UniProtKB/TrEMBL annotation:
This is YobO. Residues 24-112 form the Rhamnogalacturonase A/B/Epimerase-like pectate lyase domain. Residues 1-18 form the signal peptide. The keyword Isomerase does not apply.
Length: 381
C-alpha cells in the first residue's frame, strides 16, 4: 500500500464521517431555544419537516423545550426515521396545548410508516388528550405504524379533564414499546386500537385506567413485566376492542387510586369473540383482585397447584348426588365416561349427560348423578 492509497483511504473515511454527520438534524439548528420559556412550536415544525423531507435522523439535545400548540406529522413513505434525545432526565419537552392533541404522528397515505425510532426524552404537559398519538384515531387498521421502537421515554399528561389520554396508538404492529406513561385520576395512560404482535413493557400508571383496549382488533400482544399502579382499573377491554390472545407475563397491577369508586384489576366488557387474554403470574392488589367481568380473561399462575387433601376425588368419582365445590383458585377439569351417569348439576343448573369434559371455575359447585360409577378424572386445568 503506498502513501497515496493511505491518504485516499483516510480522506474517504473522513468524507463518509462528514456525510453521516450532515444527515443528523439538530433542533438547535432549527431555531429552538430550550430555556423553558420560549415557544418552540415553529422550531419543532421545521425540525420534523426537515427530517421527513430529507429522510434524516433528528437529535434533540438536553434542555427544556416549551411547545404551545398541536403539531402533526405524516410519517408514511419515509421509513427508518430516528428521533432521539439525551435521555428523559435531560431532554424535556413540555407541551401545553388546549386542543385535543399534543403531538400526532400519522401514517395518512394509507400505508404503514415503517422502522421508526423515538427515544431518550421526556414529554410532558397538559393536553385534552392524547398528549401523543401514534396513528390517527378512526383511521382503522390500515394507516399504521409497523416495526417501530419507543424506548427511554417518560410521557406525562397532567391535564385532568375526563376524556384525556396520555398516549394513544391507532394501528401499531410488530413493534417494541418501552415507556413510563403517567396521567392522573381521570385519564387513561395508554389507549390501544388495532395493536397487534407488539411487545410492551414499562409503566402505565397514575391514571384512571392503565391500559385500555378499544375500537378494533387488539390481539396477540405480549405485555411483559408491566408496572401499573395508582389506577382505578389496571386493564380495560372495551366491548369495541375485539381484544384477544394478549399475554400479560409477570408485572404488577395495583388498583390503589385514592378515592376511586371502582377498583377493578380487569374490567372486561368484551364479548366472547376472541378471549384468551391470559395473565401469567401477575402481582395484584391491594387485597384480592376484583374482576369486573371476566369473559375473556384466563389466569394460569395457579396452573398445576395440588388439590387439597380434603378434596379426595382426584381419581375416583364422588358419591352420586354429593355436592362438590372447586376449592382451588384455578380452573378444574373434570372428565368422566362409562358406568351409567344420568346427569350433572353445575351451580344449580342441571345438564343431562352420560359423559364428557366439564370445566369448573373457582368456587363452582358440581354434582354428578349416576347408577353405576364412571371412570373419572379431576385435575387443575
Ligand atoms: C458525500 O458527500 C459528497 C459531497 O458532499 C458526495 O459527493 C458523496 O456522494 C457523498 N457520499 C455519500 C456516501 O453519500
Ligand atoms: C384538576 O387539576 C387541578 C389543578 O391542576 C385541580 O385544581 C382540579 O381539582 C383537578 N380536577 C379534577 C377533577 O381532578
Ligand atoms: C342406567 O340406569 C337407568 C336407571 O337404573 C336405567 O334405566 C338405564 O337403562 C341404565 N342405562 C344403561 C346404559 O345401563
Ligand atoms: C371462593 O369462596 C371463598 C369463600 O366463600 C371466597 O373467600 C373467595 O373469594 C371465593 N373465590 C372466588 C374466586 O370467587
Amino acid at each position: 500500500m503506498n502513501f497515496l492509497t493511505i491518504l485516499i483511504i483516510i480522506f474517504a473515511a473522513f468524507h463518509t464521517g462528514a456525510n453521516e454527520t450532515s444527515k443528523i438534524v439538530n433542533i438547535l439548528d432549527c431555531g429552538a431555544l430550550p430555556d423553558g420559556h420560549t415557544d418552540n412550536t415553529k422550531a419543532f415544525s421545521v425540525f420534523f419537516d426537515t427530517i421527513i423531507a430529507g429522510r434524516r435522523k433528528g437529535y434533540i439535545p438536553a434542555g427544556h423545550y416549551l411547545v404551545t400548540s398541536t403539531l402533526e406529522w405524516d410519517l408514511s413513505l419515509v421509513p427508518g426515521l430516528i428521533i432521539e434525545g439525551d435521555g428523559p432526565a435531560s431532554t424535556k419537552i413540555e407541551i401545553i396545548s388546549s386542543s385535543n392533541h399534543g403531538w400526532l404522528f400519522t401514517s395518512d397515505k394509507n400505508t404503514a410508516a415503517f422502522y421508526w425510532t423515538f427515544r431518550d426524552m421526556a414529554v410532558f404537559g397538559k393536553s385534552k388528550g392524547p398528549l401523543i398519538s401514534f396513528g390517527r384515531k378512526g383511521s382503522g387498521c390500515t394507516s399504521a405504524f409497523n416495526t417501530f421502537w419507543l424506548n427511554g421515554l417518560v410521557i406525562n399528561n397532567y391535564d385532568n379533564s375526563s376524556t384525556s389520554t396520555v398516549v394513544e396508538m391507532n394501528g401499531v404492529y410488530n413493534s417494541i414499546i418501552s415507556a413510563s406513561v403517567n396521567g392522573n385520576d381521570l385519564n387513561d395512560a395508554l389507549r390501544l386500537t388495532c395493536a397487534q404482535f407488539n411487545q410492551f413493557t414499562g409503566s402505565y400508571s397514575n391514571a384512571h385506567v392503565g391500559i385500555r383496549m378499544l375500537g378494533s382488533y387488539t390481539f396477540a400482544n405480549v405485555f411483559s413485566a408491566i408496572d401499573i399502579e395508582v389506577v382505578d382499573i389496571a386493564i380495560q377491554i372495551d366491548d369495541t376492542a375485539i381484544g384477544g390472545s394478549n399475554s400479560f407475563v409477570g408485572g404488577t397491577f395495583i388498583t390503589n387510586n385514592e378515592g376511586s369508586a371502582q377498583k377493578c384489576f380487569v374490567k372486561d366488557e368484551s364479548s366472547t369473540r376472541m378471549g384468551h387474554n391470559t395473565f401469567i403470574n401477575p402481582v395484584v392488589g391491594p387485597g384480592r383482585p376484583v374482576y369486573c367481568g371476566s369473559r375473556s380473561i384466563e389466569f394460569i399462575s395457579t396452573r398445576g397447584v395440588e388439590l387439597p387433601a380434603s378434596f379426595s376425588y382426584t381419581d375416583v368419582p364422588p358419591p352420586s348426588g354429593k355436592l362438590l365445590i372447586n376449592p382451588i383458585p384455578s380452573k378444574l377439569q373434570i372428565m368422566f365416561g362409562g358406568g351409567n351417569v344420568t346427569g350433572v348439576t353445575i351451580n344449580g343448573k342441571e345438564f343431562p349427560t352420560s359423559g364428557g369434559q366439564w370445566i369448573l371455575q373457582p368456587n363452582d359447585s358440581f354434582i354428578i348423578y349416576y347408577v353405576v360409577a364412571p371412570i373419572w378424572s379431576c385435575r387443575p386445568f
